[in-house]
């Protein structure tokens, strides 16, 4: 077994010297206030061991990483029916997200782009009486951590600047692919994005995707065949138009968020979460991408 | 001078026999209730004479025809500055309206597509304290007809089904090309679309575009150079992706609305308005297009 | 009647002072050798009078202006059947010419974009045994000028650099919308583009479009209804993605070429040709566009 | 270890009953002559064992499967420089292949779409004096089988119908992303597509991608880090716009060809090749896709 602690510390030290941290996301005002030098890694092995370095216990806004967790809930509810409302193909360029939605008559390309995640949110809003409460409960349960909560300030930021999401939700509605009120779906969606978690908590939440659907308490949360498929979607579509690059350089299923968090995993082996708020030009954490590339190279672990 | 009354009657009789009336717009519920066999024409010569046939005095929902009137108001206010926020090129295919807006970073292709008309609406909302009242006042004044008004039922229909317009407005907002609240701009925009006018009133309202900017009372309402340019925009962009076809077959500047109305004009000669609610597959009045083609052929009048 | 000679001289003098001449086309090597300061205008009235200023008798490469002349030949042969193979709508952005062709399954948007002109060329190659000779003969006849000829050096340049045209022709072939060999059609197309004419000759060649189809000798060359329609296509599609701008600022049907020539006309009144090789960023002659705008403003003549 | 022979036979029997075989590719005339009921599978374990069923020893036209083999040769030559001329992102919809190339200024989205494979072909044409001979030699060497050869009849079919490839090559040339003559590159490209191999030979050729770069004789042919990356590209881009679906349902890196062949592999475990000429609507072998889905389900082997 590799000496994981040494590997993490080596990555941390080397990347800490990198003067180019990328750009902290500014379109959500609350995210722009984060220290660009923040950096943390948490590694959770499936065997129960864990390793960490840097700000692995600091709360961050998980943003789009939440899309994998809502997808897990929706696929549990809807099963294969889900794919009538959202496709599973990589989306290519991000600039044309609404364009794609128009071209493809309101069927989002996959559940990890915003339009797709809005459809997933709609499924949960339809199914649950109190979807925000249920989602929070789900995350708290699989992590066995009742302290996890929404960040009210980030939430307000989302509401006041989410014009593109309003546009996408209304376009979905025009195509009859949103069954609830636009406002209600966006309320849930902005909440899920505003969830605040540490790298450690994130790794625990995603443990089930590396462990055939069982969470850290050994409780089955998701069918094995769904786990396999969600991992496939993360690999092909987890990093916007850098998904191919990530598969190419890192070779793990994963998901990034505009808050600078990234989660990645090797089935049956580990979950790793990284946080550094500076983003590269594709919108993924710059140091996070580099850290994961170094980790798979040094540990010699990848699905390929 | 051609015998206009005979021409109109000939067109009316021939087209009345056409069993294929096209499809009445159904996406706005209130419009779907109109009699598909309704048909009327009104011809207003610049010299003051007028001719009419069929339901030329029935009120119809002018819908997108209103975009030319708000454009006239906005260009009067903003002059050339207007073109920093909206372009003047034909838009090609309609299916990709939001796509184009994304591709062109929030600058609508021209002021006669919905996105462009929303920017024009935003200009008026910024400039006037009571834009809905001012717009109504403008139309009443140039037609010298105080009876013109918004149709409340159509208006409610617009609000409850205008998801694409909500999407477009939010996307413009995301690109900082909408300065007022989305709701406020849409409130104005839905009002302008719901304006109810007869063919006769429409022809009178557009008289200024055929008469170098002076209305039927001889009062200057728009600078000559703006009239020339608005006519150019109507010719290249007045009929969605059938603009080329209309220029080709009819050869007049004009504008259609989804309510089945069409207005067209020959500078210094006449304004003609036609109404028949059935639409062709491009979204323009089927009989209206045919009537105008017959009219220019029989009268031998066109700009080309 | 306006004092045309004074107007032309005024335009010539004012624009001659403009230090910004645009960029001479460089992608065809032979065109890049032209003097960027060259500038000439020729005005041919329908009543027979003519006025000129500057290099109006210098030979230029007419390039895309030729598309209107081949269109006239093809519409004479095929009539309405032509529109089954090519559409008549404006094309919007030029960057996506092949994209549009793919999106629209091999039907070019209009006959004045390259793909459309290739279909027109194919029609002529099918119909004539010696299409290059026939085209030359047609131009010589309508201008009554046997000296007009292809420019061999430009022709070689076209062949060696026309990769985009090869791409478009092959794509048309893939969609079964090219009936002859790609090489044969391109041979004709490159010839038509390489035709060398003076501003004076161009104005004479286009006289028929301003004179209901009759050429300068009074001989009918094209049916009136085709003239009207070709003028409409020039207005909506004659200037790439600046067609709306040209209609807006100038208000005349016209066509530009990458050699820096522009032809424009007012039905029943005049034909005007301008040449200045520097192009604006849209690929139209910079001084040419400005000259025509000044001309319609000063002469107060436009179709709108 | 699963009972592979039983699994293969079970799949073979169940799928042999499927009346819907998809459509045999017709655009290449020579491919259209194949028996639509043909079906074979070959499984090569990394440990040296092999299993087969049906027509696993019949020669098929490998078509696009060849792209992975030329990519391996090119990456060996160019290393990371290769990625300046071709990207590694999934391409999404296939209908817009030339559109994407235009939108992205001549940089193909990945090396497994036709435009990307043409750039790869160009690299080999530049590097080798006799590229066709070298490619054949490479395939014969890694399979240790001198009988493999090009199929002359398929080759002629390619030349006479490859208009889209001519279009793509010329467009690449227009963007300066093809350094050799279009004809020369296409000559090589059509040869590689016409390579004729059995399922057994294909599995042996791809053995190196499952075995860290070493072929069946244990000879290193490709660096480990390149193997990992090519596998990643196969996973994200190996099945046109069904790549996401394949990752989702099968979960293996792989590549399909229009001849009905599919190759897929699990690193360190096995290579599997399937052939059935009928294609689904996405252009991948219908039975082939189903067979692989059944194989990973029954063997419980996948990268996820």
From TrEMBL, chains A, B, C, D:
Highest taxon listed in the record's lineage: Bacteria
Name recorded for this polypeptide: Glutaminase
GO molecular function annotations of the record: glutaminase activity
Subunit and interaction comment: Homotetramer.
Pfam families membership: Glutaminase
Annotated keywords: Acetylation, Hydrolase
Enzyme class: hydrolase
Family membership: Belongs to the glutaminase family.
UniProt-listed GO biological process terms: glutamate biosynthetic process; L-glutamine catabolic process
EC number of this enzyme: 3.5.1.2
UniProt binding sites for substrate: 64, 114, 158, 165, 189, 240, 258
HAMAP family: Glutaminase
């Amino acid at each position: 077994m590799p000496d994981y602690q040494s590997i993490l510390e080596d990555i941390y030290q080397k990347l800490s010297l990198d003067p180019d941290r990328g750009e902290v996301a500014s379109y959500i005002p609350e995210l722009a206030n984060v220290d660009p030098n923040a950096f943390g890694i948490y590694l959770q092995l499936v065997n129960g061991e864990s390793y960490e370095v840097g700000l692995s216990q600091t709360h961050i806004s998980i943003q789009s990483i939440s899309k994998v967790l809502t997808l897990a809930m929706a696929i549990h509810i809807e099963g294969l029916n889900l794919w009538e409302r959202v496709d599973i193909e990589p989306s290519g360029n991000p600039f044309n997200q609404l364009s794609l939605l128009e071209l493809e008559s309101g069927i989002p390309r996959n559940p990890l782009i915003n339009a797709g995640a809005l459809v997933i949110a709609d499924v949960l809003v339809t199914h649950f009486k109190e979807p925000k409460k249920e989602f929070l409960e789900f995350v708290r349960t699989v992590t066995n951590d009742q302290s996890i909560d929404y960040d009210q300030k980030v939430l307000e930021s989302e509401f006041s600047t989410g014009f593109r999401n309003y546009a996408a939700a209304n376009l979905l509605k025009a195509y009859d692919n949103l069954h609830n009120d636009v406002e209600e779906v966006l309320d849930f969606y902005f909440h899920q994005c505003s969830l605040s978690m540490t790298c450690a908590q994130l790794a625990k939440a995603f443990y089930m995707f590396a462990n055939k659907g069982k969470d850290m308490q050994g409780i089955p949360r998701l069918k094995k065949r769904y786990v396999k498929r969600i991992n496939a979607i993360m690999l092909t579509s987890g990093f916007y138009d850098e998904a191919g690059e990530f598969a190419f350089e890192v070779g793990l299923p994963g998901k990034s968020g505009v808050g600078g968090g990234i989660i990645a995993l090797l089935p049956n082996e580990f979950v790793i979460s990284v946080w550094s708020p500076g983003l590269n030009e594709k919108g993924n954490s710059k140091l996070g991408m580099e850290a994961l590339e170094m980790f798979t190279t040094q540990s010699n672990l990848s699905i390929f």
